């Protein structure tokens, strides 16, 4: 009797065991998991959440990362020069070419040609210092670049904490406001500095300084440079301001301020 009862229990236990589906039942090749299984397993095991890049705030961070690099890179990599062809009267020297290069951070007052031309006088040197505007613009770009990297790491690795802890989205929102203001003020200052740079590198004023005794002396400007690269940097600066400012709405929706407003509105409607 006991043996029969034990046998019956064993039979019931074996019936409870469900076999694993084979590759023929799932329709998948051997060793391959159903779609989404590997991603969910990795997400659970490592604790990473890449779904943020499907949300507006994640997409905006990618765009901000790209365009802030372009903005400060076009400024720091810029170089230009003014070139003059000088022919002096009462001189056995042949026609000379004067080259006055300038680049970031645009401290023109530190650039000079060590010797005067065609007449006795002081060495030729450029006038103007636009380093503060240019460096503030570049610093804004670098800070934005670093912040994008840091906040994306927070989005991916601390997603649950970001959703549950109101301090993180609030800090993210405030820092984005600050960087938006930096982009607006930095782009405006750099646009004004660029106008000053163009006037300070006007070839006519230096041509008159090198050849103060026309028509005996002859000076001709060969090239005064191209400022299209810096114009692009200013345009990218205002584009970055638009990207950072437009991202504020998506970040505001993650803050306790918005959630509290939604909760209060829901309670009022229910009452």
Automatic annotation (TrEMBL):
Transmembrane annotation, as ranges: 62-79, 136-158, 170-191, 230-252
Keywords of the record: Glycoprotein, Membrane, Transmembrane, Transmembrane helix
Topology class, membrane: Multi-pass membrane protein
A single cellular component GO annotation: synaptic vesicle membrane
Compartment(s) where it occurs, according to its Swiss-Prot or TrEMBL record: Membrane
Residue ranges of every copy of the MARVEL domain listed in the record: 52-256
Pfam family, one: MARVEL
Similarity comment: family membership: Belongs to the synaptophysin/synaptobrevin family.
Annotated protein name in UniProt: MARVEL domain-containing protein
Annotated organism of origin: Gryllus longicercus
Lineage: Eukaryota, Metazoa, Ecdysozoa, Arthropoda, Hexapoda
């Amino acid at each position: 009797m006991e043996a029969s009862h034990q046998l019956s229990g064993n039979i019931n236990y074996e019936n409870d065991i469900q076999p694993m589906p084979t590759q023929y039942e799932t329709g998948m090749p051997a060793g391959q998991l159903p779609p989404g299984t590997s991603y969910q397993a990795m997400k659970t095991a490592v604790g990473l959440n890449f779904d943020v890049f499907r949300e507006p705030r994640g997409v905006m961070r990618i765009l901000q990362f790209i365009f802030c690099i372009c903005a400060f890179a076009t400024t720091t990599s810029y170089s230009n020069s003014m070139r003059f062809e000088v022919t002096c009267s009462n001189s056995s020297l042949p026609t000379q070419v004067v080259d006055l290069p300038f680049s970031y951070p645009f401290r023109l007052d530190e650039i000079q040609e060590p010797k005067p031309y065609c007449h006795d006088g002081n060495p030729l040197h450029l006038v103007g210092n636009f380093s503060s505007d240019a460096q503030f613009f570049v610093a804004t770009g670098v800070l934005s670049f670093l912040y994008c990297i840091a906040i994306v790491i927070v989005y991916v690795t601390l997603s649950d904490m970001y959703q549950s802890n109101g301090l993180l989205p609030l800090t993210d929102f405030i820092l984005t406001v600050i960087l938006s203001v930096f982009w607006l003020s930095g782009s405006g200052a750099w646009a004004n500095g660029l106008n000053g740079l163009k006037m300070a590198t006007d070839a006519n004023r230096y041509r008159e300084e090198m050849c103060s005794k026309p028509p005996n002396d002859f000076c001709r400007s060969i090239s005064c440079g191209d400022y299209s690269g810096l114009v692009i940097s200013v345009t990218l600066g205002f584009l970055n301001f638009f990207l950072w400012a437009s991202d504020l709405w998506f970040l505001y929706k993650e803050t306790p301020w918005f959630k509290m407003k939604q909760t209060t509105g829901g309670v009022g409607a229910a009452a």
